[in-house]
Design brief:
Blueprint: E1 12-15, H1 21-31, H2 46-55, E2 60-65, E3 69-79, H3 90-94, E4 108-116, H4 125-139, E5 144-150, H5 163-171, H6 180-185, E6 189-194, E7 207-213
Helix pairs in contact: 1-2
Length: about 220
């Protein structure tokens, strides 16, 4: 029987610190159904998390409850590559799991990863993590924020259509996808289906390029 989740009355969203690295790594594995002892080339280890903090401390977020238990996480980096350029595969876009492609003066925020432990999903934690990143883009006077939202609902339709057709139907709101439709509802623009983005069979390895343009961006003003 699954254990009862902790109360969210003391939920905090804050920048990830090194002491949260293990909890962030465990959250990613738990969210994607990968056991602690299982091999996972795409799962962030505590060492990866600490490297991300070192490179871009303002862009790493944790959701904690209780005495500091990590139940959600979001990792981002800055890039000078605008979303108008052809989307890269996940690892090519971020460099590696230590986000070595992070550009300190980049004018765009790039969504690297986001995860919430299953027992805590559907309780508003993801929304708060999204808001934290919107606020970050505004505070840094960035052009906006973009990412590739994985088409996690594709497995239900894999026998009926290819992933590009499925993604286009999601973008047209003819079908609902648990990830991309949610991102559309949060204000992201959807541009096109990105194939071979990440090894994720449930999504047909594909996602949709999602873009949020910062309405407060001031061209010519300093980017901090």
């Amino acid at each position: 029987m699954a254990s009862k989740p902790d109360s969210l009355s003391n939920l905090q969203i804050h920048n990830t610190s090194p002491k949260h690295a293990v909890g962030v790594s465990e959250t990613v594995r738990e969210a994607f159904g990968v056991g602690l002892g299982e091999a996972c080339g795409d799962c962030m280890t505590p060492a990866h998390v600490r490297a991300q903090i070192w490179r871009f401390p303002a862009g790493q977020f944790s959701a904690t409850v209780g005495g500091g238990k990590v139940v959600g996480m979001a990792a981002t980096m800055r890039t000078s590559r605008p979303p108008s350029e052809k989307a890269l595969g996940w690892i090519s876009a971020i460099g590696d799991l230590e986000i070595s492609a992070h550009e300190p003066a980049g004018r765009w925020l790039y969504g690297v990863e986001m995860a919430v432990r299953p027992l805590y999903q559907g309780r508003g934690i993801g929304t708060k993590l999204y808001h934290a990143r919107f606020q970050l883009a505004r505070r840094l006077n960035l052009c906006g924020w973009y990412a590739v939202g994985m088409l996690m609902g594709y497995a239900r339709y894999a026998g009926e259509m290819d992933v590009v057709t499925y993604g286009e139907k999601v973008m047209a709101r003819e079908l609902s996808d648990p990830t991309v439709t949610m991102q559309m509802n949060r204000g992201f623009r959807v541009d096109y289906v990105v194939t071979d983005y990440l090894d994720e069979p449930a999504a047909g390895d594909a996602g949709v390029l999602i873009v949020w343009e910062n309405p407060d961006y001031q061209a010519g003003a300093a980017v901090t």
